[in-house]
Amino acid sequence: MKIEDFPEDIRQYIIPTQEGKVVYRCLGCGMEYSIEKLLYTCPDCGQILLIYDLEFDRLKKISGETWRRIFDYRKMLTIPALKGIYLYYEFIGPVIPLDSVVYLGEGHTPVVEANTYMQDKAGVRFYFKNDGQNPSASFKDRGMASALSYINFLIQKGHISDVLAICASTGDTSAAAALYGSFLQPRVKTAVLLPHKKVTPQQLSQPLGSGASVFELPGVFDDCMKVVEALSDRYNVALLNSKNAWRILGQESYSYEIAQDFEYNMDNKVIILPIGNAGNISAVMSGFLKFYETGIINSLPKIIGVQSKHANPVYRYYLEPDAKKRKFVPVTVKPSVAQAAMIGNPVSMPRVIHLVNLYNKLAGKQNVFCIEVDEQAIIDWELIANRNGHIACTHGGESLAGLVKARSQGIIDKNDTAILDSTAHALKFSGFQEMYYEKKFPKEFEITSDPDLINSPVLIHPKDLKKVPAPGKPLEGDDFELFVRRVSEEIAKALELKNGK
């Protein structure tokens, strides 16, 4: 759609211009720092950072109704920089020039309503938001689009050069970092650190295929993260984990898309997502808060973060009802099918504490909750979802298990509508499905295969057939006709088909 075809009263807003004053702000001491250099923690106190637009109030001068029309009409543009997460440019990267934006097709993933059987089984109406349909097949692309657009901006401005971007990962972060980094080569090179044997083969293949330097380390994600932090402290590297505040900024787009998908009506809505490294839940809270403060949405949805019993530090923190007595204690994780969320010391925990307090305060009630689920529920609900038209990953199963648990605890009302985060594509974690079907889960997972959920291929080779086709050796004539007839009969018998002719 051409700009002259847009309504005249919003035409000036459709293609955004650079404005605002964006800074890093420390969550500890409150100090502010320029974004003209890469920062991950406060140089003064070492606390984690968030990105603030000091001129955010300018966005409130435009009515919520006008903002809704701007975003809805902007979707009609064919400008690549505005087709992804930067559709919400003013809220994500108002100082990033459009020609610095890296767009690889991320964002605007589908929201798919569960069928009647699934909704009856869960006891509430719900949808999956399939973030596995991002370019590298996970939600991490949202944050990487933001982080690499920012790095591209710094390169173009001459503030940095010859960038080595590095991250620790349980799989999805490395795939996204390598993909987006490769788009900017040779100005950007990418290295990823993975816990040895703790990443699925499918996930391992992604950064290798994108040309990243891949290093496997003993231990778990938390160990890899400590090494990455040490490297970022001592060497000139760009850290791409969620410790990077630009990652959080890009992941806010998840909230904005949900608001737009539901016509900006957040009444009786519940957002459910795995916690993991706590970056995504931080971003989701931050995004809804921005839309609420500018009147784009009139209410804040409930947000439920889910953790497995095998990696539950955030859940444990909020078990203490008295905020003054709460103390965050990292945990030693156990093996989990929700492998990407197998994190015992989430980097974004300070952001969670800060944003939960703010979110609940503006909502006027407790509106953020933490739910703990067991491994059996995670894998069983994932398999059930995928038997009913979805492509949920194990983390989507974690979200669904959390929905069922929250419904049973009364956190979710029967009149609510839930939107569940399936963070990655199911194929990334197909190995867990294979272990389930073959009853080969190691004991430490605490998973027992339900025979009703097992599905295995059946070889059809009638014993009376002396000749069968083979590669390069096709059957012909009567032999082929006999093969087709006998195999058809065996399949019909297995499926209990009746002859209708």
Task: Walk me through the structure.
The structure is a single chain. This protein has about 500 residues and is of the alpha/beta class. It folds into 3 domains: about 110-135 and about 255-455, 3-Layer(aba) Sandwich (Rossmann fold); about 140-250, Rossmann fold, CATH 3.40.50.1100; about 455-500, no CATH class. The chain is about 35% helix and about 15% strand. The chain has 17 helices and 13 strands. It has helices at about 10-15, 65-75, 90, 115-120, 140-155, 170-185, 200-210, 220-235, 245-250, 255-260, 280-295, 315, 350-365, 375-385, 395-410, 430-435, 475-495; strands at about 20-25, 30-35, 50-55, 110-115, 125-130, 165-170, 190-195, 215, 240, 270-275, 300-310, 370-375, 415-420. The strands form 3 sheets. The protein has a 6-stranded mixed sheet, sandwiched between helices. It has a 4-stranded parallel sheet with strand order 8-7-6-9. A 3-stranded antiparallel sheet has the order 2-1-3. Strand 1 and strand 2 form a beta hairpin. Helix 10 (about 255-260) packs across helix 11 and helix 14 (about 375-385) crosses helix 15 (about 395-410). The longest helix is centred in the N-terminal third of the chain and has 18 residues, at about 140-155. It is globular and about 80 Å long. The N and C termini lie far apart (about 55 Å). The relative contact order is 0.11. The mean pLDDT is about 95.
